[in-house]
Amino acid sequence: MKKTSAIIIGISSDIGTALCRKWTGNGWQVTGTYRKKTPAMKKLEKEGACFFFCDVAKPASCIAACRKLEKVCRAWDLLVMLPASLKPIGPFSEDRFSDWQNSVELNFINQMLLVHQLLPLRRRGSLLGPCVLFFSAGGINDAPVNYSAYTAAKIATVKMAELLAEEIKDTRFVTIGPGWVKTKIHQETLAAGSKAGANYRRTADKFKKGNFTPMEKILDCCDWIVNQPKSIVSGRNFHVNHDQWGTKKFSGKLAREPHLLKLRKYGSI
After folding, report:
1. Topology of domain 5-256, per CATH?
2. Domain spans of the chain?
3. Percentage of the chain exceeding pLDDT 90
């Protein structure tokens, strides 16, 4: 039996590190990219994980990382995309457009570049087929104020997962909304202060009360998705807290309703 092989783009993120720790513990081969090395990565390297530098904000760095990844990971089963930045935070009309554009490139365009480059390396012929996991965010069902670049990029990611699911039949493409997780990304909101609007107080309250999605729940959701067939998960956007993933009833509903958990127009006159 060949080891399950995973590539984690953004392994230095809190979720990336947790996924790597769990999957290497399960005997998987885990390869990943980082922008800044963290102390936790040293232990993961000792456990067999392999890392390469990649600044996802720069296309040339993405291409260089892919060339290194293809030398050590020629047949991946799972590709996880985790890089994210909330910046620029503030009204669209007051943002420098170059900052807004750079955010969309980091949160969407350059991640699609990485997927495009790495897709030829996916393992073919397995029972469930390879899986690409993207992480989504709020904004699908409402309109977060002062986070337009990040929100637009994440919504584009959700739709792109559905498009890729239809185009590439041998691979599963899934997005996951983790909810509020105690990770480094929220420091961007706290640093933005009044530019974050009402979300500044909401974020500060979350840290004060410690009301976050448990990391273990996110890991369990990822594992459940990875072990589901294309008909159940591909092209869909799951929320860790709001969806009843892991239950037979919910899986049956997904099998019967092809539009469930996908971006659709709401209502009509």
Report:
1. Rossmann fold (3.40.50)
2. 5-256
3. 92
